[in-house]
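Sample pair:
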Amino acid sequence: MSVDSVYSHQAFARELGELPFELIADFERKTVTDWGVRRTDLQGYDGVARRTIFVLDSERVVRWRWVTSPEKRLPDISEVLAEANKVAVATTS
């Protein structure tokens, strides 16, 4: 999901050779605001989402979240996958 337009998402997906999932456009910035990840700290970026990862369970409850910070600009992919696996295992148990 990003605040880019649907058309921007379509072009991005084509550039990557299509994607196995849908990109969601939050052009009105409602979701980034509701989920608490809207940037307001840097001029010119107001309304843009902070890079964030949410892991939701099958009931759509947030079970884990990572939000970028000045200290940690990118997530630890192995940590993201481990948390997603924990949720997947708990969901199927």
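The mean pLDDT is 90.
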